[in-house]
Specification:
Layout lengths: L12 E2 L2 H6 L6 E2 L1 H4 L5 H16 L5 H4 L15
Parallel strand pairs: 1-2
Length: 80
């Protein structure tokens, strides 16, 4: 899925090595080493947190780099 939110950055995460290899310019975070037992969950969590801080500080996610994410607001005002 190449969805990216135009309002806030979308970080795409995959734990499947085949997906990461097939979509290198869409997946922002590769978690496959955790599922394969080559990385501890806490280490991957630290890597993900660092990525989140970097993107929150101005680095761009792949969706932003590729210009994905057109949002259409269908309703303005109150709603029941």
């Amino acid at each position: 899925n190449s969805f990216c939110n135009a309002v806030a950055p979308t970080i795409k995460i995959s734990g499947r090595p085949d997906t990461v290899a097939r979509l290198p310019h869409q997946i922002d975070f590769d978690a496959s080493a955790v599922l394969a037992g080559r990385e501890e969950l806490r280490d991957a969590g630290a890597r993900l947190f660092a990525l989140m801080l970097a993107i929150a500080s101005g680095d761009r996610s792949w969706g932003e780099i590729l210009g994905e994410g057109e949002e259409i607001f269908a309703r303005i005002g109150g709603s029941l």
